[in-house]
Design brief:
The chain is of the alpha/beta class and 473 residues long. The protein has 17 helices and 19 strands. The structure holds flavin-adenine dinucleotide and the ligand Cc1cnn(-c2ccc(OCc3ccccc3)c(C(=O)O)c2)c1-c1ccc(Cl)c(F)c1.
Length: 473
């Protein structure tokens, strides 16, 4: 029948992992007319009750917004987010200084992770060619036949076979695990010595934000960093980043209060002393892993995206933004290749791998930089200098953070442009210094001659002979 023919013609795709990237990608593939089955190992998060004070939020920037726009969701998400126009740097003496991210329209957004996932799942479900399967954990998949084996909540095994397996199952991806058995699959992972712990700054007594709302609050203390992003309920989700061995050295209330009084004194009244003690001493710090691998595809049968392909350390706030941008990149390539997976998948690896590695390196660079040399003074100086040079040379000195967060310049190009800018700037500054120095010497020399001074000071003679030598050389 016609229906059977159409069904044969229609690409059948399984998306393993209904997290942020999987749910978004389901919308992109549904838009292409594919038959989409999403398999998520957890239960439907939309049925779980909301736990107050446990909201996790994420910084959404340009790349992620563009991806949401591609499926008509940007407005919905922006409406439910809070713009952050600047960083608010907290000094140890409690002083707070804002540094703008750029112009009025250059801001990042604080969005609630759970709400984002729910909106994406609900949007995906609206497509009649999308089916969501919760409580389905992928066990194995066969890249020759497209067969997949799941385990459902009853412990039964469920089989499925499709034209394309999409692995969006996160940093510990089962699809990637299968790929690792194949020859010439490169893989590397690194756990960093820092852990992170989420704390909560509740609204103030009169139910207002306890700090300025439209800011990314940062307490940079070299090897300790803390950030706070605002929530719609006027609380701030606060994340403390610290080496695991420091976490484990704080075992009682005294040690905890000594530590916070020394490092983050202004945050104690905001977090609430009793709440801080309770949540810190009852939580375990979580690990952060970075994963790099190549290729992202297997023949015309499988592709991995999001954290499954490139888990980043969170020191650039780009993991989700990068995973969302993966969806645009693959969608554009499918347009160019006319939905021919044999062509599109190798092209996806060729294009995306170099950019994912670039943002992974940038995130790790930020981690190393901030851990080793960035306290609040230096944070301020570097960002103010960045903004000043950007004002003076808007075409040549675009801060790296601006390129990464407010443009869709390919991640690897952000690095090469930055290196070029550094070269240009150091060359310009050196030339200016030399020219400045030479003109200083020449005018000083002329001044002395004019005043008939016979004996020129030694530094002037040395400088003049240096310049003569340089000019002759
Ligand atoms: C502390 C911290 C702060 C962060 N802050 C930011 C930020 O500010 N901005 C930003 O852009 N990013 C941020 N990130 C990164 C962001 O959280 C991730 O990049 C993003 O969640 C990746 O989405 P994903 O869908 O690829 O993976 P995940 O969100 O991990 O989703 C994977 C899904 O797959 C499911 N799954 C796993 N295994 C299986 C299986 N075998 N079968 C079926 N389903 C499976 C999981 O249940 C999950 O639902 C942060 C990360 C951390 C750790
Ligand atoms: C969630 C999120 C969204 N963006 N950023 C972010 C990251 C780095 C930044 O600068 C690095 C730097 C500052 C000073 C010197 C070198 C590098 C800036 C900035 O420029 O404001 C903003 C984060 C974030 C995530 C974790 C930590 Cl620990 C953190 F502090 C911020």
């Amino acid at each position: 029948s016609l229906r059977k023919m159409v069904q044969e013609q229609t690409k059948h795709v399984a998306i393993c992992g209904g997290g942020l990237v999987g749910a978004l990608n389901a919308c992109y593939m549904a838009q292409r007319g594919y038959r989409v089955d999403v398999y998520e190992m957890r239960q439907d998060i939309r049925t779980q009750e909301i736990v107050r004070g446990r909201s996790i939020n994420l910084a959404l920037s340009c790349r992620g917004r563009e991806a949401l726009k591609g499926v008509g969701l940007e407005e919905t998400i922006v409406k439910n987010g809070i713009p952050m126009h600047a960083r608010m740097i907290h000094d140890r003496d409690g002083k707070r200084r804002p540094i703008l991210y750029g112009t009025r329209d250059q801001y990042i957004m604080s969005v609630d992770r759970r709400l984002l996932n729910e909106v994406l799942l609900t949007e995906a479900e609206k497509y009649e060619n999308v089916k969501l399967h919760f409580n389905h954990k992928l066990l194995t998949c066969n890249f020759d036949t497209g067969e997949m084996l799941f385990q459902n909540e009853k412990g039964d095994q469920v089989k499925a076979s499709v034209d394309l397996v999409v692995g969006t199952d996160g940093a510990f991806s089962a699809v990637r695990k299968q790929m690792m058995k194949l020859s010439r699959f490169d893989y590397q992972q690194t756990y960093i010595p820092h852990g992170y712990m989420e704390l909560n700054i509740p609204p103030s007594a009169d139910n207002e934000f306890a700090m300025e709302a439209n800011y990314l609050h940062i307490w940079p203390r070299n090897e300790f960093m803390m950030i706070a992003l605002p929530n719609l309920d006027r609380s701030f989700t606060t994340t403390l980043f610290m080496p695991f061995d420091i976490f484990s050295s704080i075992t009682d209330e005294r040690q905890l209060m000594d530590f916070f009084t020394d490092k983050f004194p202004d945050s104690i009244p905001l977090l609430g002393q009793e709440a801080l003690k309770k949540s810190f001493l009852s939580s375990k710090p979580l690990p952060m892993v970075t994963v790099k691998c190549e290729p992202y595809h297997v023949k015309d049968k499988a592709v991995i995206m999001g954290d499954a392909a490139h888990a980043l350390v969170p020191f650039y706030g780009q993991g989700m933004n990068c995973g969302f941008e993966d969806c645009i990149v693959l969608n554009d390539i499918l347009d160019q290749c006319g939905d021919d997976f044999a062509k599109a998948l190798p092209e996806y690896t060729r294009i995306r791998n170099v950019d994912a590695k670039a943002i992974s390196d940038l995130a790790m660079y930020n981690y190393v930089e901030m851990r080793s040399s960035v306290n609040s003074k230096l944070f301020l100086i570097r960002k103010k200098l960045d903004n000043l040079l950007y004002k003076l040379f808007p075409k040549t000195w675009v801060p790296l953070y601006t390129m990464v967060s407010f443009t869709r310049i390919r991640y690897h190009e952000c690095i090469s442009r930055r290196e070029w800018q550094d070269k240009v700037l150091t060359h310009t500054l050196r030339t200016a210094a030399v020219l400045g120095g030479v003109s200083l010497l020449v005018s000083a020399h002329a001044l002395y001659r004019h005043q008939g001074a016979l004996e020129m000071p030694g530094w002037l003679q040395a400088g003049i002979s240096l310049v003569e030598g340089w000019v002759r050389g």
